[in-house]
TrEMBL record:
Residues 455-529 form the Transglutaminase-like domain. Signal peptide: none annotated. PANTHER family: PROTEIN-GLUTAMINE GAMMA-GLUTAMYLTRANSFERASE. Residues 715-727 have a biased composition (Basic and acidic residues). This is DUF3488 and transglutaminase-like domain-containing protein. It comes from Pendulispora brunnea. It comes from the Bacteria. The chain crosses the membrane at residues 13-46, 58-77, 127-149, 185-207, 596-618. Residues 715-742 are annotated as: Disordered. InterPro entries: Bact_TGase-like, Papain-like_cys_pep_sf, TgpA-like_C, TgpA_N, Transglutaminase-like. Keywords: Membrane, Transmembrane, Transmembrane helix.
Length: 742
């Protein structure tokens, strides 16, 4: 493998990983990310021979300044400082890659890549950053070593160094050499990443954690979900199922489900509800919110209906991603909510829950970037009794004055003669489910009266048309209703063992108030045909398999690495302690004196003492081995080389005594030839002794004891000789650079 090629590849890989790490942690626009990736690929593809062209030289000088001016102007124009800084750092690396010349620039590239990873750590990287960091650990040792070697080669060339034949160092030949870098070298440098990773992971787990979330400057921009704001135009929620990607909105897990678990689960996760319809959009007439009551001060438990019963209630775990508005989604029959709070931040506002109108629950504070919570469900599914006041009843019966009268006529035609409100609601639900088609592309959304057009003209639409039509028709016959938005369920992730609810699973249904004599209250009805009232994401196929794997890894990374805080650390040590105590109980090590000696603190102290004693013993043995070790007998060739080197050291000392010392970077033969060229009185003797040394050192000539004594005698004579002062016109011994030029 060629030295120059391997060095370039490893440096390029390190730079690319650094740019990917910083770009993946910043919430840049897709266009910006695409342009940065195109620029990075273009810079990596520029041939090394082009990088000495005048255009790239000018780019190397003016490029960073131009980027700084442009990014400063964008910052003044109102662009977020974080985005501007990330773009500047990535562009600076791209310019350096495109215009690099030599090892000095390669070291700048490595330093920039390291700074990119430091910035990515502060910004709070996700799974992509984690993969880039692992690549960095593997590539960085080799890139650093090769960069240092290349810098030494180029530095020796600039200083006029010569090889053993006396010729100048040929840098291009060394870069093309296949003898410098081999498979063993690459394997050894890459394996250095293993102890580095283990040491880093140990520090990460053991180092005390505090609330440093203020360092997470890159708070991800929450996904905007229009279906949960205070106004929703008819058609918006249904459009979510086609316009949004398959980004995960939340994950949930219900422990006591049967195995194998169904690939899809229909579970209406209620987000918010609306009480007023103006003919085109759903609104909320009441927007006041209040702090949710805790079970007791400082508790993370919030009773919504009653206190949870651990023996009777069913518990489900939810992991909510960052959404705007920050609505908490709850399944049917929820009685209480338990929030998993992270370690409290130092400066930012702590998390709080708020109760809003129409049974809505929201969260706010530092953890507004997402929420983990447990939901307690009533196994008996007892309805919640709620008495509707005359004022509230009027709100849920209000209709826009412009509503066409034939909607009311159709409602009466479907419900007149039925015995009660429940039968009427079921009749309308069944008619809509069976006589109308579920369709994303309904033309009714663009009409003046969308519900009327849906019922009598198009007879097709998405979920919001069905729920709105049912709510309006039941109000026409005197039954209070409201429109609800949320999610319809999720698809099972076999790797993470949870159900993933995606933004495209947004759904709308209807809640009907029934005057039940025993339990009056709100009841759920979903008039959307079954084809549209379930998660629409695919559950089979190779792409689905890879998607589930990546999403499960990302979820684990965010929870156990990015979200690793003091509370998680304490739980980790508590779990380890419990597992160790269970092991002691099962093996009988917890009895008597042995039980005391096997306690976790005692074992940790003993291990620490044993490690210290072992290190001291190893250190002493190593020191004693070095001082008392017997050297292996030297070969004749080694003796010859050592003897020749000693002879020239004595000659070097004589030259220094005569005031004509050889420069460190100048080969012996070149120095002797220079003295002869300038007619130094001792030049002939110096040249003769130098040639004799070179023959013994590199020519394979073995000096006899007589020849060695003769060499030493001539050196002593040379040292004691006092030649006449040299002519002032004779130049002094050359410096390294001048010898190279000669």
């Amino acid at each position: 493998m060629r030295f120059g090629l391997v060095h370039r590849l490893m440096t390029d890989a390190l730079a690319a990983l650094g740019v990917l790490a910083i770009v993946s942690t910043a919430a840049l626009s897709p266009w910006t990310n695409a342009l940065l990736m195109i620029g990075l690929i273009g810079a990596l593809l520029i041939p090394e021979r082009w990088q000495s062209r005048p255009v790239l030289r000018h780019l190397a000088s003016a490029g960073p300044l131009a980027i700084f001016v442009i990014q400063a102007a964008r910052l003044v124009a109102g662009r977020p400082m974080l985005d501007v800084s990330v773009e500047f750092a990535a562009l600076l690396q791209i310019v350096r890659l495109a215009t690099r010349r030599g090892a000095a620039h390669d070291q700048q590239i490595i330093v920039l890549a390291l700074l990119h990873f430091v910035a990515g750590t502060v910004l709070g990287g996700g799974l992509t950053y984690g993969l880039c960091f692992l690549g960095f650990l593997v590539v960085a040792p080799g890139a650093l070593v090769l960069s240092h070697l290349r810098r030494e080669v180029e530095g020796n060339y600039r200083q006029g160094a010569r090889d053993r034949t006396g010729l100048p160092v040929d840098v291009p030949r060394i870069l093309r050499s296949r003898r410098v870098v081999g498979r063993g070298f690459l394997a050894a440098t890459c394996l250095i990443s293993v102890p580095i990773f283990l040491f880093t992971a140990t520090l990460f787990i053991l180092f005390p954690r505090v609330g440093l979330s203020l360092l997470l400057l890159n708070h991800p921009r929450p996904g905007r979900m229009v279906g949960f704001s205070d106004r929703v135009d008819l058609g918006d929620v249904g459009a979510l199922r086609t316009d949004l990607s398959s980004a995960v909105a939340l994950r949930f897990d219900i422990p006591d489900l049967p195995d194998p678990r169904p690939s899809r689960m229909v579970l209406r996760l209620r987000g918010t509800a609306f009480d007023a319809y103006d003919g085109r959009a759903w609104l909320r007439t009441q927007t006041e919110r209040r702090a949710a009551e805790r079970a007791f001060p400082g508790s993370d438990l919030y009773p919504l209906v009653r206190q949870p019963d651990g023996d009777k209630d069913r518990k489900a775990t939810f992991d909510l991603e960052s959404l705007d508005p920050p609505v908490v989604f709850l399944p049917p029959h929820t009685v209480a909510l338990h929030v998993h709070l992270p370690s409290q931040p130092l400066l930012n506002e702590a998390l709080t829950l708020q109760r809003g109108p129409e049974g809505e629950v929201r969260y706010a504070g530092e953890s507004a970037r997402g929420l983990r919570y447990d939901v307690y469900l009533d196994r008996e599914r007892n309805p919640v009794t709620e008495i509707l006041s005359p004022h509230d009843r009027a709100r849920y019966l209000a209709l826009p004055p412009s509503l066409p009268s034939r909607i009311g006529g159709l409602a009466h035609a479907w419900t007149d003669g039925l015995p009660n409100d429940y039968a009427k609601a079921k009749a309308v639900e069944e008619k809509l489910r069976t006589q109308y088609k579920y369709d994303f592309g309904s033309p009714s959304g663009g009409t003046k009266q969308p519900v009327d057009h849906f019922l009598f003209e198009s007879k097709r639409g998405h979920c919001e048309f069905f729920s709105t039509a049912m709510a309006v028709m039941l109000r026409e016959v005197g039954i209070p209703t409201r429109n609800v938005t949320g999610f319809v369920g999720g698809t099972y992730n076999r790797f993470g063992r949870y159900y993933a609810v995606r933004q495209a699973d947004a759904h709308s249904w209807t809640e009907v108030y029934l005057d039940d004599p025993v339990h009056p209250g709100w009841h759920t009805f979903d008039p959307t045909p079954p084809a549209g009232a379930q998660p629409l994401e695919e559950t089979t196929g190779a792409l689905v398999y890879m998607r589930d794997l990546v999403e499960a890894l990302s979820q684990r990374w965010n929870r156990y690495v990015v979200g690793y805080d003091l509370r998680t650390q304490v739980h980790l040590f508590e779990d380890a302690t419990r597992q160790y105590d269970r092991f002691r109980a099962q093996t009988g090590l917890n009895r008597g004196v042995l039980g005391y000696l096997t306690r976790a603190p005692v074992v940790a102290a003993l291990l620490l003492v044993a490690a210290s004693v072992g290190y001291i013993i190893w250190k002493r043995r190593r020191r004693g081995g070095k001082s008392g070790e017997k050297l292996a007998p030297k070969t004749p060739a080694e003796k010859r080389l050592e003897s020749a080197a000693a002879l020239y050291r004595s000659l070097d000392g004589a030259l220094m005594a005569q005031g004509i010392a050889r420069p460190a970077a100048l080969p012996p033969l070149a120095h002797a030839e220079h003295l002869q060229k300038n007619k130094h009185p001792l030049a002939d003797e110096i040249l003769a002794l130098t040639q004799l040394y070179l023959e013994a050192r590199f020519g394979g000539v073995c000096l006899t004891p007589e020849a060695t004594r003769d060499f030493e005698r001539r050196v002593r004579t040379l040292r004691s000789t006092r030649p006449e002062p040299p002519d002032r016109s004779v130049s002094q011994p050359p410096a390294a650079g001048s010898a190279t030029r000669a």
